[in-house]
Specification:
mainly alpha; 71% helix
Length: 143
């Protein structure tokens, strides 16, 4: 596949996963970085490097790569979803919601992301209601 289409994202990802699974994570990163150099106008190599970094627990490097992907293409839905996932995992639900919402604006055909947005919006609304002071004479159990 890579011989015919060296910039094919799924093939690049597959090779990187294979390299990691066979104990060669540094080669996986090198291979993806070479792709980024070869195709500087594509956010895809940066997204794949970010995924690999995140899987290896290197969250600062993953965030840096997502920023690089979005610098190349600020309207890349995959990068926005990945950023949302990272921010959600870090507990930053407002920023996660912003990233997911922007991704949905760009591509409405993302049912999983729609569910994420609805869930996070519901949690935010529930937190707002819970934080409101009760009117005098209303017990907390009445909520």
């Amino acid at each position: 596949c890579l011989a015919r289409a060296p910039d094919h994202a799924a093939c690049q990802r597959g090779l990187a996963v294979l390299l990691v699974e066979t104990g060669r994570p540094d080669e996986a990163i090198d291979q993806l970085e070479q792709w980024a150099v070869r195709d500087p106008d594509s956010p895809e190599p940066h997204i794949e490097i970010a995924r690999l970094c995140q899987e290896q627990g290197n969250l600062p490097a993953a965030e840096e790569q997502l920023a690089a992907a979005l610098a190349v293409d600020p309207d890349n839905s995959r990068a926005l979803v990945a950023r949302g996932q990272m921010r959600e995992a870090a507990g930053d639900t407002q920023q996660a919601l912003a990233s997911y919402s922007r991704a949905l604006e760009l591509d409405r055909n993302q049912p999983t992301v729609m569910v994420k947005v609805a869930t996070l919006q519901g949690e935010a609304a529930a937190a707002t209601v819970a934080a409101r002071p009760l009117p005098s004479g209303v017990s907390p159990a009445a909520r």
